[in-house]
């Protein structure tokens, strides 16, 4: 016999019941609502005179765009981030990217775990949905995953610990280099943690106007940033598994193997492509010494995956290099990570499906595991939603800005994939173009799967099947 939930009699109690019911019934819409609310809060914070270095009230478009870019951990900006915002404004930025990078659902679950010392089924389902989008469609899944529903509590602890350990570790590696560069100890401590946070959250904001200029050829500084970006981009489920079974690869899940393999492969191929395409470009890498001519393209390859830092003027890249960067940004990083894009596992699934079709196999297989067909359908949906978003935003922005297609497409994909790299077009856009890019960032960060699930009013169970007929394809 099922018991009805006890409803509170007070007004605040009824509001809380309605809010909890909405969060449990539609976690996708709940995520969008929370992200939108955070954007509103940080827009108000950035609109305060104390948030700007000049003490003036910023334009609404600048405050709004910065809030979206911060919460969506994108890194694009319409102002000079280093000089425009005050120290308090940079504190707001730091807090915002931490919230956005971890993910609102995961952050809420961590707070609930700390307060109650236990994790209820509702919180577990919410956190699991953030880790595995498939559960938004089918609930708890039986197949082996990087993180099972019963392990979500351990995952949340891993998230909190990994964020703390990685960001502090990266900051400690950067701190001595900043001291050697002549920064006072307090300034070096602040900037090292700032860079560390921006690297791990894959945001790319910088605390000073000159940014990475003093360290543009510094192997140590740039390598540490790459490590921070990589750890943030592989995703919390991967970090969780590696922390438990680092020396036992046989116990790594299929998700971990696909994520690491595809990430490393794209990093290497992207770096080699930039080496070849920019070898003779004196405005980017051709004027550097031999070591830097090989190192810098690989740094750029890592940053296009969602890192957002740059040591060159992106607008000076050849058109072919911009196209390669577009592809890398659109793919992005790992699932449930601080990176954006369609995710590396999505790309891996599409290639596995194409390979299986070419060989005449009925199903997809990888690392001695069979991959169910619904994963392919979800991957196709993600790519179609992403491509539609990018195409629509590009068409609108082309009409608004009148800029060339290669620059507009780069800017739009950078916004959608929350990469943060820019050719300089974003800062030159009128307010209407700024709002278009802000919407693109929001759609990219909330996630195409989450957005699609939120737009669906309800899930239907179809109790019948229609007659089958095959259309001609290809």
Automatic annotation (TrEMBL):
Q: Please name the Pfam families in this protein's record.
A: TrkH
| Entry's transmembrane regions | 30-48, 60-79, 91-115, 155-175, 219-242, 254-277, 327-355, 375-400, 434-457
Indicate the principal place this protein occupies in or around the cell. Answer: membrane
Q: How does it sit in the membrane?
A: Multi-pass membrane protein
**Does the entry feature the keyword Phosphoprotein, yes or no?**
no
Record-level Gene Ontology MF annotations: monoatomic cation transmembrane transporter activity
What are the UniProt keywords, alphabetically? Cell membrane, Ion transport, Membrane, Transmembrane, Transmembrane helix, Transport
Q: Report the GO terms under cellular component.
A: plasma membrane
Q: Cite a single GO BP annotation.
A: metal ion transport
Output the superkingdom of the source species. Answer: Bacteria
Q: Where in the cell is it found?
A: Cell membrane
The entry's protein name is: Trk-type K+ transport system membrane component
In its UniProt entry, the species of origin is given as Conyzicola lurida
């Amino acid at each position: 016999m099922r018991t009805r939930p006890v409803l509170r009699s007070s007004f605040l109690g009824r509001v809380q019941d309605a809010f909890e019911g909405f969060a449990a019934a539609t976690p996708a819409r709940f995520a969008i609502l929370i992200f939108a609310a955070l954007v509103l809060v940080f827009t108000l914070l950035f609109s305060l005179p104390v948030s700007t270095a000049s003490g003036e009230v910023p334009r609404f478009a600048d405050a709004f765009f910065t809030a979206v870019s911060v919460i969506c951990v994108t890194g694009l900006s319409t102002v000079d981030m280093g000089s425009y915002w005050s120290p308090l404004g940079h504190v707001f930025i730091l807090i915002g990217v931490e919230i956005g990078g971890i993910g609102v659902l995961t952050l809420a679950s961590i707070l609930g775990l700390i307060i109650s010392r236990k994790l209820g089924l509702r919180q577990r389902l919410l956190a699991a949905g953030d880790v595995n989008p498939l559960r938004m469609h089918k609930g708890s899944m039986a197949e082996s995953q990087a993180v099972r529903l019963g392990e979500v509590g351990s995952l949340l602890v891993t998230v909190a610990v990994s964020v703390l350990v990685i960001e502090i570790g990266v900051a400690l590696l950067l701190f001595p280099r900043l001291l050697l560069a002549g920064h006072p100890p307090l300034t070096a401590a602040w900037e090292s943690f700032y860079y560390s946070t921006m690297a791990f959250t894959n945001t790319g904001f910088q605390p000073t106007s000159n940014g990475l200029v003093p360290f543009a050829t510094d192997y140590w500084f740039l390598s540490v940033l790459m490590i921070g970006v990589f750890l943030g981009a592989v995703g919390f489920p991967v970090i969780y598994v590696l922390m438990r079974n680092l020396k036992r690869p046989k116990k790594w899940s299929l998700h971990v193997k696909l994520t690491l393999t595809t990430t490393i492969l794209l990093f290497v191929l992207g770096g080699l492509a930039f080496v070849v395409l920019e070898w003779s470009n004196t405005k980017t890498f051709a004027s550097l010494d031999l070591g830097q001519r090989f190192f810098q393209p690989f740094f750029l390859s890592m940053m296009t995956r969602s890192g957002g830092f740059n040591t060159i003027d992106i607008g000076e890249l050849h058109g072919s290099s911009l196209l390669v960067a577009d592809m890398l940004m659109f793919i992005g990083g790992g699932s449930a990570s601080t990176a954006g894009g369609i995710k590396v596992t999505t790309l891996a699934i599409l290639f596995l499906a194409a390979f299986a079709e070419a060989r005449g196999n009925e199903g997809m297989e990888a690392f001695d595991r069979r991959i169910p067909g619904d994963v392919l359908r979800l991957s196709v949906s993600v790519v179609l939603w992403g491509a539609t978003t990018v195409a629509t935003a590009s068409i609108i922005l082309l009409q608004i800005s009148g800029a060339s297609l290669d620059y507009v497409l780069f800017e739009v994909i950078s916004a959608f994939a929350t990469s943060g790299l820019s050719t300089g077009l974003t800062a030159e856009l009128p307010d209407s173009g700024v709002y278009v890019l802000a919407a693109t960032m929001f759609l990219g960060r909330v996630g195409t799967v989450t957005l699609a699930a939120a737009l669906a009013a309800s899930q239907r169970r179809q109790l019948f099947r229609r007659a089958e007929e095959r259309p001609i394809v290809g």
